[in-house]
Amino acid sequence: MIPWWAAYGCVTRVRHPYFGAIPPKHSARKTSRPDIATPDHIAKDNRVMYPTQDDFKKAYLDQKHQNGGVAPKRDEFLSHNRFSKKQLEVAFGSKSYSKLQQYCGDDPNALDLQKTPIDQIMCNYGRLATDTLKAENKLPVAAEWAARRLKPTESGLARVHNIRWSDMPNAFLDFCQTNAQAKHDFEQVVTAIDRLESRTKPTQSNNQTRGQMAIYNIVRNWSPARRRNSEESYQSELAQFLKGNSEVRRMQFEVREEKGDSLCDIAVG
Q1: Using a CB cutoff of 8 Å and minimum separation of 24, what contacts does 261-268 make?
Q2: What are 116-173's pLDDT values in tens digits?
Q3: Could you tell me the CA-to-CA distances from 246 to 61, 243, 253 in Å, in that order?
Q4: Helix (H), strand (E) at residue 240
Q5: CA 61, CA 70: separation in Å to the nearest integer?
Q6: Residue closest to 37 by CA, chosen among 49, 47, 27
Q7: Residues 6+ apart with CB under 8 A from 31
Q8: CB 245 within 8 A of CB 167
Q9: Backbone phi and psi for residue 82, each to the nearest 5 degrees, phi listed first
Q10: What are phi and psi of 174, to 5 degrees?
C-alpha cells in the first residue's frame, strides 16, 4: 500500500510526517549555505562572458603570424577566430577593429576607408579588359573584376562613384577622351568598346544626337536595385539614378519626373 503522503507527490508542496515541509524540487529558497545554488549564484554562473582585449590581441597576432606577417582584414579575422562583431565592439567600442590593430602595434587599414581615385579604377579596368580581349576576345564581366580583388567592389563602384558595371565601358571611353596617355595605352580596349556600341545601338535618325543615344544606352543597361510593388516606384528609382549618373551630369542634362496621361514619365534634356 502506498503511504498517504506519497499520494500527494504531484502537489507543489507536501508535508512529510517526519521532516516537515519539503520545498519544491527547483525552489530557489534563500539559504546561507554556499554549496546550494541561489538566484544570485545562478545569475552569476549564467552570465555571458566576452573575450578581453588581450584575447583579441593574441588571436590577431597568431593569425598575422600564420599569414606570414600580413595583417588580416576585419571580416577574415572574425570568421577565422569565430568572433562576432558585437564581441569586438564590447571590447574596443567604436571603430573596434582599427583600435585592435593599434593595440597590437599595427597601423589601421586606412586604405580601406579611402575613396579609390577614378583614374586608378579606369586604368585597372583597361588592364583587365586588355587581358580578357587577348584571352577570350570579350570585355570583362564583374566576376572577373572581383576575381582579381580590384577595388572598389562592384557595389562600392555604384555606391561611391555612382557607376554601375554596365556603365563601365562608356565611363572608360569618357576617361580616355580626356586622358591621351590612357587612350594610347588601351587603344585595343577603346576600339573594342566602339565596335560593341556600333552593334548594339539602334540606327540614328537625323534628329538623334550623341546625347540622346547615350541616354538610351544608360536606360537600356539600367536594372532596379530590387523588385517593387508599383510602376511609380520604379519611375522614381530610375529618375534618381539618372540624376546621379556621371555621364548625365557631364552632359548637363536636366532630369525631371512628369505625371499625367499626356506626359511622359521621365523627361531628360
Answers
A1: 265/235, 266/235, 266/238, 266/239, 266/242, 268/215, 268/242
A2: 888 999 999 999 999 999 999 999 999 999 999 998 888 888 877 888 998 999 999 9
A3: 43, 8, 11
A4: helix 231-244
A5: 10
A6: 27
A7: 38
A8: yes
A9: 60, 40
A10: -60, -40
pLDDT higher than 70, residue 253: yes
Round to whole Å and give the CA distance between 73 and 75. Answer: 6
Residue 225 and residue 227: Cα distance in Å, rounded? 7
pLDDT at 25 over 70: no
Please answer whether residues 110 and 97 qualify as being in contact, where contact means their C-beta atoms are separated by less than 8 angstroms.
Answer: no
Residue 7 C-alpha cell reads as 499520494
**Residue 244 and residue 213 in contact, taking contact as beta carbons nearer than 8 Å:** no
Q: Which residues does residue 149 pair with via DSSP β-bridges, in sequence order?
A: none
54, three cell numbers: 588581450
Once rounded to an integer, what is the mean pLDDT over residues 235-243? 76
Q: In a 3-state reduction of DSSP, which class is residue 4?
A: coil
pLDDT digits (tens, 9 = 90+) for 166-221: 899 999 999 998 898 998 999 999 999 988 866 555 444 444 456 777 777 777 77
68: region left, alpha or beta (phi > 0 left; psi from -120 to 50 alpha):
left
Residue pointed to by grid coordinates 564590447: 90
- 268: phi then psi, degrees, rounded to nearest 5: -125, 125
Q: Would you say the pTM of this structure is higher than 0.70?
A: no
Alpha-carbon gap, residue 7 to 1, rounded angstroms: 11
Give the C-alpha separation, 232 to 240, whole Å: 12
Residue 244: predicted pLDDT: 75
